[in-house]
Design a protein that fits this description.
The protein is α/β, with parallel strands linked by helices and 318 residues long. The protein folds into 2 domains: 239 residues, Rossmann fold (3-Layer(aba) Sandwich), CATH 3.40.50; 66 residues. The chain has an 8-stranded mixed beta sheet. Strand 6, helix 9 and strand 7 form a beta-alpha-beta unit. Helix 2 packs across helix 3.
């Protein structure tokens, strides 16, 4: 771990700014499905008998329940998970970017992108013929720590997996294997993310970032949370995203130890959501994440993206 007088300033690059995009960007088209709606389509298509309307169930454990319930609770669980992921990938591959998102992606405000989405809407904004097979940096089969898609100079990191990893090795790792949804895979992912900042071999964060900077095979999205400015938009930061909360909390702990971390992380939300999201806002402000409310008419999410882009300079100084 960095010492009391440590600094991460040497790794900070102000010229490389990241926009983190969540599933909210796929909710802008008329008739677009929310996450539970998508799962309901899959449940109906596979004729799975589960109660999908109980909002008390977390999506990660609901997915596990669905996998166990396929074929009347018979068959190999990994085969069932493959069937679910294949359908998810099929639905994701049909998505097209909304104009409001394309304008934001193609503005000069951000150089690179992070996303929890499996689809290629961001890539399609940058290159309308993108099909998910080109520009792969490391075709890792299941976990998405080191893999990104590059279009010209722009990197797009699918931190929750993607429709097609490009991996053609072991047959157990099918193209959709990296899609992160089930509780088991989430748990494994947290452990791997943890190792990127608190290694079991005694290496601290400074050494780990130095190693990654000196070896392109170790380049990863995790260290960006300590070395790049990141704006998060269209993402609810649900508490189930424990790997992301871990990174934000670990960053706050380092800051409390007077370790210099010059990057800024901001959560961009519509102003009309402020009261609804008060619980997360209080926590985020406590762990040194800025929350930026964007003025827009209630429930006008298209206007939210437009207003954020049009008034970007104003929100820079918020």
């Amino acid at each position: 771990m960095p010492t009391q007088n440590s600094t991460l300033s040497q790794f900070y690059n102000k010229q490389e700014r990241y926009l983190f995009l969540g599933n909210g960007i796929n909710q802008l088209h008329d008739g677009s499905l929310r996450w539970k709606g998508l799962l309901k389509l899959i449940v109906d298509e596979l004729k799975i008998k589960v109660n999908i309307d109980d909002d008390r169930k977390s999506n990660t454990l609901l997915f596990e329940e669905m996998a166990y319930a396929i074929n009347h609770h018979k068959g190999d669980i990994e085969t069932n998970i493959h069937s679910l992921k294949k359908l998810l990938a099929l639905k994701a591959s049909e998505l097209e970017p909304h104009e409001a998102v394309a304008n934001l992606v193609n503005s000069d405000k951000y150089q690179h992108f992070l996303t929890t989405n499996y689809d290629y809407c961001i890539e399609k904004c940058l290159q309308d013929t993108y099909d998910g097979t080109r520009g792969k940096h490391q075709k890792t089969p299941k976990y998405s720590l080191f893999r990104y898609n590059q279009i010209n100079e722009t990197k797009v990191w699918h931190i929750h997996g993607e429709v097609n990893t490009g991996y053609t090795g072991n047959k157990q790792f099918y193209p959709e294997a990296s899609i992160l949804i089930g509780f088991e895979q989430y748990s494994d992912y947290l452990q791997k993310v943890h190792q990127m900042v608190k290694s079991s071999n005694g290496k601290g964060l400074i050494n780990l970032i130095t190693d990654a900077n000196n070896n392109s095979k170790k380049e990863n999205w995790v260290h960006l949370f300590y070395t790049r400015d990141i704006d998060i938009i269209g993402f609810g930061l649900e508490y189930v995203e424990n790997h992301l909360w871990f990174l934000l909390n670990f960053r706050a702990r380092l800051l409390r130890k007077n370790i210099k971390i010059p990057n800024t992380i901001r959560w961009i939300i519509p102003e009309f959501c402020w009261n609804e999201k008060k619980d997360k806002i209080e926590i985020l402000e406590a762990i040194h994440v800025k929350v930026i409310p964007v003025k827009t008419t209630k429930n006008d999410y298209i206007g939210f993206y437009k207003n954020f882009l049009e008034n970007h300079a104003e929100y820079e100084n918020y």
